[in-house]
Amino acid sequence: MAITSIKNLKEFSTANERFEGAHLLCPGCAHSMIVRELMNCSDDNLVIATNTGCLEVSTAVYPYTAWDTSWIHIGFENAATAAAGAEAMYKARKRKGTLKNPDAPVKFVAFGGDGSTYDIGFQWLSGAVERGHDFTYICLDNEVYANTGGQRSSSTPIGSSTTTSPAGRVSYGEKKMKKDMVSIMAANGAHYVAQLAPNKWKIMAKGFQKALAIEGPCFINTVSACTTEWKFDPKDTVHIMDLATDSLVFPLYEIVDGYELNILYRPKNVIPVKDYLGAQGRFKHLFKPENKHVLDEWQKRVDASWERLQRREEARV
Amino acid sequence: MKGVCATENRGTKEIGSEELVGWDAVTQGVVIHSFEGDAANIASLKQEERCYSEFSSYTATVASWRVVKPVYNRDICIDCQNCWVWCPDTSIISRDKQMLGIDYDHCKGCSVCVEVCPTNPKSLLMFAEHDEIEKALESWPQKEKKD
Question: Complex ipTM above 0.95?
Fold first, then answer.
């Protein structure tokens, strides 16, 4: 089956929606932008597994489902395992000739939040990638356990105030750095890993199509701005993600076969990191004079990681 | 052990009786179908051509969440589809590269579509939920002059 054209937005908009409205995600949630885009950029039959998290609890509230494809939910940690199991069974039944419709193209996709990807489902994801199943894992990275009330995860960046790392008189919030999951998955042997953002829809759609087409495990980390936990107005979702990509806090890049790094988006005007931080309530306390060192640390880290990415792109190692 | 479990026809049924029921006799989950009948070529059908079952959230509504609503002005729209690609609630109806309007059953009033609209004046604007659409269109702002 043909893959939907993403040459321009007008052509892309002729895709037939397979993610229905009236799910219960917050107004202005970026999760559904990402899910819609994935399902619109492919015409194949999708088998989707979802970890517990905002996406799962909001899109399948009995008796309704927002999904127009096969969709599985089992536990907090095992979307990767569910997708891998479905894929293994599909291959086995294809080999035995017991499939009803063996020629239909089928793709396996797993969705997880950052909590279930970076922390709880890490071992399961690592195992499924190591076994080489043909599936795409998409992490909806909102840097916090948003579904359970905003606890820190290992994706939470330094200085962020969460319910388990609150900022106040003695603390400036989360003390630890964000885990570099994209590099970990590249080293883990995923055939294609990428970091994408829904505000750059074309780059994201291209990345999704590439990941679905590649045979073997693929991992995609997508930025998903959370209006509730990042504390900004729902209307600013796209604007906040623009700030994130333009300040290089979330550089968009891909790594093919573990070594071929390509930077997918180079902002024309790189904006200072404090513009991105200042737009969100969770970093409000960093602008007090006593926390200036955290802001400087942020800018230094972002500059260093951008430098590293550019060097890796040149060196091809 | 007595218990209640969900059934496929949106009801509940009592499971177990006075005697004990083993773990393997309890229904672990429920399969619900988004469509009536065959769903094999759903990707090639538009939403209005599909046969949704009562389980699909397409048949549900979240209109009661809204306090403000977007109003669409066809005269200014350039069909750029920015609102379509970023709408989190699948509420922008676009067919054949044309923006047709807003699906008020599924819109939650987040204003993302208004923010990403590039025209001057914007072809989507937020109005109070109780405002009438005709009156809203009459009160549409004029083109802003650049200084």
Answer: no
Query: CB distance from B7 to chain A under 8 Å?
Result: no
The three-class DSSP label of residue B43 is: helix
Determine, for residues B114 and A12 on separate chains, whether the beta-carbon distance falls below 8 Å: no
Q: Identify which of A52, A67, A278, A250 has the alpha carbon closest to the alpha carbon of residue A146.
A: A52
For the stretch A48-103, pLDDT in tens is: 999 999 999 999 988 899 999 999 988 899 999 999 999 999 999 999 999 988 88
Find tokens 């669409």 and name the residue.
B72
| pTM, full prediction | 0.91
Instruction: Name chain B contacts of A32, Cβ cutoff 8 Å.
Output: 88-90
Query: B-contacting residues of A 14-73, CB under 8 Å?
Result: 14, 16-25, 27-33, 36-37, 42-45, 59, 62-69
Q: Is A130's Cβ below 8 Å from some Cβ in B?
A: no
CATH class of B62-138: alpha beta
Query: Which amino acid is present at A198?
Result: P
What gap in Å lies between CA A12 and CA B92, rounded to an integer? 14
> Which residues of chain A does B45 touch, with a Cβ-Cβ cutoff of 8 Å?
16
| d(C-alpha A17, C-alpha A37), whole Å | 9
2.40.300.10, 2.30.40.10, 3.40.190.10, 3.40.50.970: CATH of A9-315? 3.40.50.970
Q: Is A101 on the interface with B (CB under 8 A)?
A: yes
